[in-house]
Design brief:
Elements (H helix, E strand, L loop, with lengths): L10 E4 L2 E4 L31 E6 L11 E2 L6 E2 L13 E5 L12 H5 L20 H8 L9 E4 L7 E2 L2 E2 L1 H4 L3 E3 L2 E2 L6 H9 L10 H13 L4 H27 L25 H17 L5 E5 L19 H4 L5 H22 L2 E2 L2 E2 L4 E6 L14 E4 L10 E4 L8 H11 L18
Helix pairs in contact: 4-7, 6-7, 7-9
């Protein structure tokens, strides 16, 4: 039995840098006191790992005939859009039939997206007012528990224009810190990475790992052989992300829209995000995983694109039409783009499921909510597309398909109340809901 003098909040430190550690059997679990009656802490006592919440969003809906699931557990059948999640059928919940009543009033992208995570009425006519989104309520509830209360990432820049009397900021932001404050989006992988590991964002270009290697060496000599391997794997993954960000930034390219000129008429910025949308999304997915793996943050929102999106996908051979226009079809290319988004969810799930945290994996201790503000590109918001991957610390009944179509009390906010409850926040009401979904 291994004794130690460390706690879960032990960090690797260097000049201007602090790196939280992944779950290690040699360290107390999540910084809590040992379980009652134990003289030392091992991998099987102490408190459980925390529950993490990630909200992933793709705008403009999905292929009208291929977003579906039926059955249970390993026998669950998935439509072609959801096929990338086939390996996780026993760890997911497919939900059909939920809707947001307030989103139906404007029947355009902005009015259907700005309140997606709150169910609140939206102001129009130049005013900006929505509601505090449920991800931020959870982050505020756990404020102080982690270095970064909430990480809000994006792969397409915000749109400040107006469409049919509604601000397009509603189409660009799903996370709201208050009814009048959309949570700022982090578009740049380098700055998102810095938030996790550097004491001051943008402090400098020095490698995070180079700064902490001395401290890592000292720790390595005092932990178990299994933990040494886990620490090495963790440091390698951080190095890999760091190097990929460095290469992306060196190109100084902008991502997410097609410029009006063949060549820029102003100098390119020194730092940028990857031109390849696949690389950009994959970096943001890796940063999300690192944030959860190190318990640097427990709440992450990743907006893969805007509603009313202008993204193109040359990486998929779909470069002839922007995402928004493509969404008004049910072509093979639209399905290919849909599957590309689900591949990002599957990538996150696979990485989290490979991280062992005692008797569970990081995916078992997480809730990945993937959704859009409409089922199809034709603005059908009466039946929102929803899938939840992960077991929420064993609190979610996974491997099931739930259908609320035609039933009363099918508010999307009931699902949010359930997820908040599993994250330790127990509101009596939220948005237009007064009770949780007991089936989740």
């Amino acid at each position: 039995m291994l004794t130690h003098q460390f706690t879960r909040r032990t960090m690797l430190r260097g000049l201007g840098v602090s790196m939280a550690l992944p779950w290690l059997e040699s360290l107390r679990v999540w910084g809590d006191e040992p379980a009652k009656g134990t003289a030392v802490v091992t991998s099987t006592n102490g408190s459980e790992a925390p529950v993490r919440l990630a909200v992933l969003f793709a705008g403009n809906g999905f292929h009208s005939r291929e977003w579906w699931a039926k059955g249970t557990g390993r026998e669950m059948q998935l439509g072609k859009v959801l096929e990338p999640l086939a390996d996780f059928r026993e760890k997911l919940v497919y939900v059909r039939g939920l809707f947001n009543a307030e989103a139906l009033k404007g029947n355009i992208h902005s009015s259907q997206t700005g309140n997606l995570l709150s169910g609140a009425p939206l102001a129009s006519g130049g005013e900006i007012r929505s509601g505090t989104s449920f991800d931020q309520l959870v982050a505020q509830h756990h404020a102080g528990s982690t270095k970064v209360p909430s990480l809000v990432l994006a792969c397409e820049k915000s749109n400040p224009s107006v469409h049919k009397n509604y601000s397009m900021l509603y189409s660009s932001h799903i996370s709201w810190s208050s009814p009048t404050t959309p949570t700022p989006l982090e578009l740049y992988p380098a700055l998102a990475f810095d938030r996790l590991f550097k004491d001051e964002v943008g402090r400098g270009d020095k490698s995070v790992l180079d700064a902490v290697m001395g401290d890592a060496g000292d720790l390595r000599r005092k932990i178990s052989t299994a933990d040494q391997r886990k620490l090495d794997e963790y440091l390698d993954s951080v190095r890999d992300v760091e190097q990929r960000i460095s290469k992306a930034g060196q190109r100084g390219e902008l991502q997410g829209w097609r410029p009006a000129l063949d060549k820029p008429n102003i100098p390119r910025p020194a730092d940028g995000v990857p031109q390849d949308i696949g690389e950009h999304m994959r970096l943001m997915c890796d940063i999300l995983v690192l944030g959860f793996q190190t318990d640097t943050t427990r709440i992450t929102t990743l907006k893969l694109n805007n509603d009313h999106s202008s993204l193109r996908f040359p990486n998929l051979g779909v470069d002839y039409m922007i995402h928004h226009l493509l969404s008004h079809s049910d072509t093979a290319d639209w399905l290919k783009v849909n599957q590309f988004f689900l591949q990002q969810v599957a990538y996150i799930a696979r990485k989290l499921d490979a991280i062992q945290e005692g008797d569970r994996t990081a995916l078992d201790n997480s809730m990945l909510l993937f959704c859009s503000s409409m089922l199809t590109g034709n603005h059908d918001a009466t039946n929102l597309p929803v899938v939840v991957v992960g077991r929420g610390g064993g609190r979610i009944k996974t491997g099931q398909c739930l259908d609320y179509s035609g039933k009363p009390n099918r508010q999307m906010c009931r699902l949010y109340m359930s997820l908040m409850d599993k994250a330790g926040l127990r509101p009596k009401t939220f948005g237009d809901a007064v009770e949780m979904l007991d089936e989740v």
